[in-house]
Amino acid sequence: MIPGPFTYHRPANLSEALAVLKAHGDEARPLAGGHSLIPMMKLRMAAPEHLIDLAGIADLKGIREEGGEIVIGATTTQAELIKSDLLAAKLPIIRETALQIADPQIRYKGTLGGNVANGDPGNDMPAVMQALGATYVVQGSGGERRIPARDFYEGAYFTALQQDEILIAVRIPAPPAGHGYAYEKLKRKIGDYATAAAAVILTVSGGKVASAAITLTNVASTPLFAADAAKLVIGTALDAASVKRAAEAAKAITDPATDGRGTAEYRREMAGVMTARALAKAFARAKG
Ligand code: FAD
User: Is the ipTM of this complex over 0.90?
Assistant: First the structure.
């Protein structure tokens, strides 16, 4: 299939992009790497009449440290995330996750902003952003808004982003040095979306878990923040019984569909397995 006809816009700055978006309402969509939007257009599941290419807007690119936060511009590609020394030092889970997205060709074009704004439950970065306590900075005709990643996802392809808004950056509080992290993803083959995946960020003090965040990918219509599961490991030395209880609590909030990646029962079970593996790996990596 080929996409329907559309008008291509390439604004040089954000205000121009916002003006085009406002002028065309529902008929317009931002275009970042195009690796989710263009396939949807080819399948005729999306038919925007105006595509607003964000690639010419220099302000939307780059990775920098600002106070205690890491700020990543929306059009920073997944390949750039992998190459960043700052992220490798401060937020290694981002590199670990980006390396599990699709394949190198897609990662050279696909952006962080597109991955988190898309609203596809199969995208890997949203759960990681929720685990990290990230905030999305969006700009629209009414000004700037900051939306916690944990409040952003409303349903498959439904997010808190308004039609006239563009995601400009993701702000992530840098976790303490020596924190533990892991993104464990089960997939059928290289380049596949997750059958189930889990992200864990934790800190350890005196051999016990001092803080923990657990999130899940592709086992419901949105990424899942498993708050109860995380509570069950805090204060423990991550013994087998605590891990089992946390994995069960994570499984309990899933609602996967039966699809080509497996039955709902299998995918729910795998959400528990990924949670247990991510917890063990994060704990082993943590210092404290
Ligand atoms: P686009 O496709 O350009 O846009 C996606 C959506 O987000 C569109 O609705 C667009 O309007 C909107 N959008 C984009 N940027 C902004 C912005 N700044 N502000 C507001 N709205 C915006 N992803 C994974 O996470 N894991 C995988 O395993 C994986 N496997 C893949 C395998 C294949 C074969 C392919 C083709 C893609 C795969 N992807 C996977 C998706 C890939 O990571 C995409 O690049 C990503 O989901 C979207 O990023 P993009 O920059 O390409 O966005």
Answer: yes
